[in-house]
Amino acid sequence: MDYDVIIVGASIAGCTAATAYGRAGLRVALVERQRSPQAHKTLCGHFVLGGAHDVLQRMGFWQPMLAHGAAVTTGLGVWTGSGWVVPGTGSAVPSAISLRRSKLDPLLREIAGATPGVDLLLGHRVVDLVEGPSGAVAGVVVSRGGAERIVLRARLVVAADGHHSTVARLARVAEDSAPNNRFLFWTYYEGATMNGPGDGQVWPLDPDTAVCIRVDDGLTQVGVFPAKDRLPEFTADRAAAFDRFVERLPDGPALTGARRVSNLVGTTDYPCIRRDPTPRAGLALIGDAATASDPVPAVGCGWAFRSAAWLADATAEPLAQGGNLHRALRSYRRAHRFIDKYDALGRQEALAKPPTALQLAVRTAAVSDPDIARRLAMFAMRAADPSVLLNPKVMVRALVGSRMRTPRGRPSGPSRLATG
Ligand SMILES: Cc1cc2nc3c(=O)[nH]c(=O)nc-3n(C[C@H](O)[C@H](O)[C@H](O)COP(=O)(O)OP(=O)(O)OC[C@H]3O[C@@H](n4cnc5c(N)ncnc54)[C@H](O)[C@@H]3O)c2cc1C
């Protein structure tokens, strides 16, 4: 069967791309191994950073997410040893949004499946690729569980099949893996009260991290991201270690009387993986298939929405009109550099090393300097190029500002909390 584009994986990246291509008038096969339209990813904290806000609006996803109960975060308070960085009002930092994947994934699949031109093929697992005479990827071979094999052909195959990408493996795409020296667990509470500023809080405790976020259904999500040297403590008694960690957070959430409504969700090892997003003729990778970053800064869902939209922006027209696909894929590759830059920084952060003097200076200065606080928020929300924060002028200002706050001339930083 022939299509203009075949997308493998009907989750965030795949549904976004399929919806965009369908709206551009293309014939799209959206191939998903899961049989149920309600299937969803469970290992995901689903906090979608503000940098994805414009794409969510443009795709028409924002309002349906709100209608399904999504919680919007307009400003996160960031704890530092020198006080809280309080989000400024009117600072034009785009809002983040959070909808649990049990609601988000079916919603996106429903929107994509209802888009004219999109064939949502549930229960279809890609097991092989079709290659053209020149070696270009020209289609996929799918299985519906039995011995039968179905061949689908298209000018472009899109791998949106997550961090273990079968398509990338079948296409022999090289994988670049880097260690993650933190692990993570989170849970949800009914009736929790936040005590920090903003409508959510982050505690960079160096090397551990913690977050408290509002999610759908009025629930509060509390997550901890300790460095791996604390694994034995969590292995001994995960729930007790989690509670101890949260209890000792400065201005942490009040949980007395709150009801925990889920088990602890998380993982003890999640390396960072990246692959070339345009590795071969006729093939593009989006979402986690291209870049599965450290979960701590909560970038993955945003990257999935944004990379899918960028790919469709670059390629829909040439696919519809028989134009130069190679050039269009190069344009997608260039757009993807935004993610590559942040991923390079994220890989350093994932090593859980002590913060540099500059990092401490930025946080300390941001407590009293609204411009640095805004830049820090834009960076954290992945809402601008990293240079919004990481540039010489801001660094000098941060060093001077932090010295004024700490009389002995040394930026003060938080020391590790909640040990033992
Ligand atoms: C512990 C943890 C916490 C996280 N927390 C956050 C967070 O708070 N915020 C955030 O932004 N990101 C977070 N992420 C990252 C986020 O979950 C991913 O970046 C996001 O799910 C990527 O979406 P995707 O569509 O690329 O891939 P996925 O969501 O992984 O979807 C891949 C799809 O492909 C399908 N598929 C796979 N193989 C085949 C095949 N052979 N044939 C057909 N279909 C196939 C799968 O069934 C699935 O539907 C977290 C990740 C982890 C591990």
Provide a descriptive summary of the structure in words.
The protein has 12 helices and 21 strands. Among the domains are: about 1-45 and about 100-180 and about 270-345, FAD/NAD(P)-binding domain (3-Layer(bba) Sandwich), CATH 3.50.50.60; about 355-405, no CATH class. The model is unreliable at about 405-415 (pLDDT under 50). The radius of gyration is 22 Å and the shape is globular. The chain is α+β, with helices and mostly antiparallel strands. Strands 5, 6, 13, 14, 15, 16, 17 and 18 form an 8-stranded mixed β-sheet that branches. Flavin-adenine dinucleotide (FAD) binds near residues 10, 12, 31, 43 and 47.
* Name given to the CATH architecture of the domain at 2-46 and 101-178 and 271-346: 3-Layer(bba) Sandwich
Shape: globular
- Total helices: the number is 12
Taking all Cα atoms into account, the compactness measure Rg is 22 Å
What small molecules does the structure contain?
flavin-adenine dinucleotide
Outline the biggest β-sheet.
Answer: 8 strands, mixed
Search tags:
7-stranded mixed β-sheet, globular, 420 residues, binds flavin-adenine dinucleotide, 8-stranded mixed β-sheet
Quick summary:
This protein is α+β, with helices and mostly antiparallel strands. 34% of the residues lie in helices and 23% in strands.
Furnish the topology, listing elements before pairings:
Layout: E1 2-8, H1 12-23, E2 28-32, E3 47-48, H2 53-58, H3 62-67, E4 71-73, E5 77-80, E6 83-85, E7 96-98, H4 101-113, E8 118-122, E9 125-131, E10 137-143, E11 149-159, H5 166-170, E12 176-178, E13 184-190, E14 200-204, E15 209-214, E16 220-225, H6 231-236, H7 238-247, E17 259-260, E18 265-267, E19 272-274, E20 283-285, E21 291-292, H8 300-321, H9 325-349, H10 357-368, H11 370-380, H12 392-405
Parallel strand pairs: 1-2, 1-11, 2-8, 5-14, 11-20
Antiparallel strand pairs: 3-7, 4-7, 5-6, 9-10, 10-11, 12-19, 13-16, 13-17, 13-18, 14-15, 15-16, 19-21
Helix pairs in contact: 1-4, 1-8, 8-9, 10-11, 10-12
Bound molecules: flavin-adenine dinucleotide.
Flavin-adenine dinucleotide (FAD) is lined by residues 8-14, 31-34, 41, 43-48, 125-126, 160-162, 166, 184, 266-267, 270, 287-288, 295, 298-302, 304.
